[in-house]
Design goal:
Layout (H helix, E strand, L loop, with lengths): L14 E5 L6 E5 L2 H10 L3 E3 L6 E3 L6 H17 L4 E3 L9 H21 L3 H12 L5 H23 L4 H35 L18
Parallel strand pairs: 1-5
Antiparallel strand pairs: 1-2, 2-4, 3-4
Helix pairs in contact: 1-2, 3-4, 4-6, 5-6
Length: about 220
């Protein structure tokens, strides 16, 4: 009878390809000499000295789309060579924007459905939190997009010497979104207070003990 044995697997050093938020550079950390060869040959990465160990990065001045294409090409070449790779999703050139848009639309539809079916202060507060939470709420995130568009529009109009009225309108829209977020948060806080009040147990009623009886001897 032939005995079955588990095969031996050799896993290369783990490699992470990501975009450094401070410098906006695309860096590759980890790997061995063979991985370094692929990064340099396929992705155009440069060897760079680090505090603990060397790493790789893409050259300065590359457009965002070039960064994504080079990082994606290097990641797939590393995977094909047997390396374990994590590619930052923002660098994945094969990710479809339509897919992200569909996910956003589904999320909005689900949130709308939750709002229409809300039957308690807790459910209402959860929906309003998703709409106006300061860091990840829909209104603050939308305002961030409008603010960035305002800056870009201002830069474009100043360069072309055009009418600045659209910039003023965008700035007013950003302020309106901020006020709307504050109003929604106010309603959310009120719903949260109502929830807390409804869950607070009532104070125990004072017990009335019967008056002691006097025994006569």
């Amino acid at each position: 009878m032939k005995s079955s044995t588990e095969p031996d697997f050799f896993v290369q050093d783990y490699i992470t390809i990501t975009k450094d938020p401070r410098t906006e550079l695309v860096v590759a950390i980890g790997g061995n000499g063979r991985a370094a060869d692929i990064l340099q040959r396929i992705g155009g990465f440069l060897n760079a000295p680090g505090a603990g160990r060397d790493y790789h990065r893409l050259p300065h001045g590359l457009a965002v789309e070039q960064q994504r294409l080079k990082a994606t090409a290097a990641a797939h070449a590393l995977l094909a060579a047997g390396h374990s790779v994590h590619l930052d999703p923002v660098l994945n050139a094969l990710a479809t924007p339509d897919g992200e848009r569909e996910s956003a639309l589904r999320y909005l539809a689900q949130l709308s459905e939750r709002a229409s079916r809300a039957e308690s202060a807790t459910e209402i507060a959860e929906v309003l939190t998703a709409v106006a939470a300061p860091s990840e709420g829909l209104l603050p995130l939308t305002r961030e997009v409008v603010v960035r568009a305002t800056i870009a529009c201002s830069r474009h109009l100043n360069t072309g010497g055009k009418d600045a009225e659209p910039v003023s309108q965008l700035a007013n829209t950003a302020d309106s979104l901020l006020r709307a977020a504050h109003q929604v948060l106010f309603a959310r806080n009120q719903a949260a207070r109502d929830r807390a009040a409804s869950t607070t147990p009532p104070a125990p009623a004072a017990s009335h003990l019967p008056a002691p009886t006097t025994r006569r001897r």
